[in-house]
Amino acid sequence: MEINGRSRVIALFAYPSTHVRTPSFFNPLCDQQGRNAVLVPWQVHPGQLSAAWDGLRHVESLAGVLVTIPHKTAAAGLCDRLDGVAKLLGVVNAARRLPDGQFVGRIFDGLGFLRGLEKAGHSIAGKRALLVGAGGAATSIAHALIEGGVGSLTIANRSPEKAVHLASLLQREFPNRHIMAGNNDANGYEIVINGTSLGMKVDDPLPLPTDTLEPGTLVAEVVMQPDETVFLKCAAARGCVVHKGYHMVAGQTELLAAFLLDDTTDRAD
Is 119 annotated as catalytic? Predict the structure, then answer.
């Protein structure tokens, strides 16, 4: 698709932006669907997020904004309205720009994560799951896991109070489900998920002691770059089934395109 004066632009805010892989999924989809639109990653420091965001309110070519680490919680506070799960959890990864310059935010990470699991042939129904992390992506994934029928969910986080807060929030939303805060010991779990950014840097610590992983456990990542993190390599060496981070983005790309571009994008005839 040729980029021209009628092209709709989506900015992807990240810091750093070097790990971003979403354009490699999003832009080919726009081309396939005949959408005159392009997604461009922008490196925006957290301290400049608000100023950058406010400037985009006046850009009429802008269809919306995608956000990733570390902006998902802060971006929710910059939206004029939050819809669905984003309103409950206070996190977004997509914000659509309305004609008057206001932004409506939603979160698709959880749905994308579940879709990625389903496409890879993995079921979560009735399984015991451990989720490491309580940030933006992890928060959305936690909600999706409970809504999707996981048997029990334990949330572990470096700051335990954040895990307790998220577990309490979800327990109020799903009062009859088994949700708790706990530690990052993987013994006894059928699904283990790294919902943190640990693994993006070569010197990052592991999200949990890998000697607690049991053979046959499904071990999943949200980190997309590198393609196979040290955590996944360790999990594979212990006989676990590994699920890469790119599946989460691949699973939500169509949802993101529909939210940001439907009824606002010229389609090729």
Answer: no
